[in-house]
Design a protein that fits this description.
CBS-domain, 4-stranded mixed sheet
Length: about 325
């Protein structure tokens, strides 16, 4: 049997090995189980802590090998120490129990939730593991790099991003967090994602449904009333079979049809229209409207005009909601 002094030394060594084993096991889960993307997002909440961990996680394979080698050494040494303390029969039972509880379950549960905090606090121990096992860790890390490749930022498909957004909306609100999204936010974010592949052909108004005026139109009282009832702010102007421009209705505001009929002044026709191919994406069309060239565009299939699309059409597609003005509200209430 060991002397009291030797027993005390073995007990201290046993506790130390259990502690080191728990660090290896816990941080293997807490740090290396964290995706690179999640680690990058963690720096928004823990900028100082993640700064200490970034050099360690720069080579994940090296850290993984160092933790596994160090943990293997600790797990191999613990039964040997217990054998000297309590004998071989009890050593087997105690070593398994201690390693499962204090070397696996508790550290992995804690580090799974507080991996950044615990990893940052014990980062110096991780560096010691790397330096002490560097020869073996470096070789195995290089082999892992050749076999499985380096782990980079994970990119999600659009549908996967939508699922993540839905989960954020479905989760219960946290009192101390603004992470949760309400239903309206979830719907709008999903609409923005889905619109990325939507073309103007899907949101345009077909040309046969578009109200147009000929360049020779006489703006008498009946015609002005007709334009008013249409409720448009812009009207396409045609000359023969060709669209020659767009008329802003506000340019007619000073015209009094009771005093005189008025033919269209060509100077009031805006001719530099935006032309979009039918396959143009919705966001590309939005960029065109942001240039200040106008809020109405002609949609073409080759040389043929097949419809028009407005800024309002684009915004309704992105928001996945109809946009109503005061006139629309009055019409709906009367209906």
């Amino acid at each position: 049997m060991p002397t009291d002094l030797k027993k005390a030394g073995l007990s201290i060594a046993l506790i130390l090995l259990l502690f080191l084993s728990s660090i290896c096991s816990g941080l293997n889960t807490g740090l290396l189980g964290m995706s690179p993307l999640k680690f990058e997002l963690s720096q928004l909440k823990y900028p100082i802590l993640t700064r200490k961990l970034r050099p360690l996680l720069a080579d994940r394979h090296l850290l993984l090998c160092a933790l596994l080698i160090a943990n293997s050494i600790c797990m191999a040494a613990i039964p040997l120490l217990l054998d000297q303390l309590v004998g071989p029969a009890l050593a087997l039972v105690l070593s398994v129990s201690l390693l499962v509880i204090f070397g696996e379950i508790l550290p992995q549960a804690l580090c799974g939730k507080f991996g950044i905090q615990i990893g940052s606090f014990f980062s110096f121990i991780l560096w010691i593991f790397i330096y002490c096992t560097f020869l073996g860790s470096f070789i195995f890390a290089k082999l892992l790099g050749k076999i499985v490749g380096d782990e980079g930022i994970e990119f999600y498909k659009r549908r996967e991003i939508e699922c993540i957004i839905e989960q954020q909306g479905e989760s219960r609100p946290s009192e101390n967090s603004d992470a949760n999204l309400d239903r309206e936010e979830v719907q709008q974010i999903k609409s923005v994602i889905r619109c990325a592949k939507m073309s103007v052909l899907e949101v345009m108004t077909p040309i046969e449904d578009v109200y147009v005026l000929a360049v020779s139109t006489i703006f008498n009282q009946a015609k002005m009333l007709e334009i008013y009832e249409r409720g448009h702010s812009r009207i396409l102007i045609t000359e023969g079979d060709e669209i020659c421009g767009v008329l802003h209705i506000k340019s007619l505001i000073m015209h009094n049809p009771e005093q005189q009929d008025l033919t269209l002044n060509r100077e009031k026709i805006r001719k530099n229209l935006i032309h979009l191919d039918e396959k143009t994406r919705v966001y590309e069309a939005l960029n065109q409207f942001q240039t200040g060239k106008g809020h109405l565009a002609l949609v073409r299939s080759g040389e043929i005009v097949v419809g028009i699309v407005t800024l309002e059409d684009i915004m309704e597609a992105i928001l996945c909601h109809e946009i109503y003005d005061e006139g629309d509200v009055v019409e709906m209430s009367e209906a």
